[in-house]
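Q: I have 173 residues here and want to know how they pack in 3D. Can you give me a structure?
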Amino acid sequence: MKNIFRLIGILAILGATSFYIWKSDNKETSTLEKVEKITTASILNKEIKPIFHEVKTLARLEFFKIDAMINKKFLLLYFHTNSCYYCEKMKNITFADSRVQKELKTNYIVVSVNYSKFKQSFKKQFPLGGTPAIFFFDKEGKQITDENFYGYQSAEDFYNKIERLAKVEKPTK
């Protein structure tokens, strides 16, 4: 009789443990699925990501401004930092969006600055309040200050913004 109670006790403990592990695995899977979606979007779009020209100096930025003017394109200046969650989100979700990539490749020269590394070179001309920060320049190389923004934007919102800007022949400053 004692053996039967021991067996029932052991089975109850095993059942409870199995249920707990199963329930924990389901929670981890849902978190894992979220991470997988971000990673998968990033991996799938890797081949068509826009070319970010990483710049370290104002002189190099000026080179790309001139390149944009010669090619009659807008210049998008993207500031990010090493420890910025929303910078990574912009890079891996917003910039990975195929519509965003197509619009950027068609109408923009995209320049990226790692503000963690090159703050000293840019802080006088671009004193940032935070990152990510995006500045737009028209086809004549003039900054479109009304369109600058800080923080994360979804792919949809960002696409609407860059598409609208590209349709304007001579943007309002």
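Q: Anything worth noting?
A: Residues 24-32, 34-43 have pLDDT under 50 and may be disordered. Strands lie at 52-54, 74-80, 108-114, 133-137, 149-150.
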